Amino acid sequence: MVRIRMSRLGRPHRPFYRINAVDSRVKRDGAVIENLGWYNPMAKGAEKPADLNIERIKYWISMGAQPSLTVMNMLAKNGVVDAEKVKAAHAKRVAAKIAGAEKKAAIAASAKKPEEKKA
Asked: How far apart are the C-alpha atoms of 2 and 21, rounded to whole Å?
């Protein structure tokens, strides 16, 4: 599966990221299929914080590539994908995570109860 994710560049304490189409089994800074843009979280003033090749990103998404959560949020901010769908998907993931944690806690609590002695 192809993922659209960021690879880290830059020096210590000055990150710079490239947004790439990558095979999901490859390491973070491993082999890249295609470079789709960049993101500079340290941009100040008139500098652009990101430059995205939107046409190619839309192409990869149409071919089944899945953006990472961070890239998906970036695409929503830039209007490439529907921001409401991203928010709804995020809320669904959070609800599922909470439900799973509650279920796990209930199982752990039931396992800790001391067994009643039979007379």
From this structure: 6
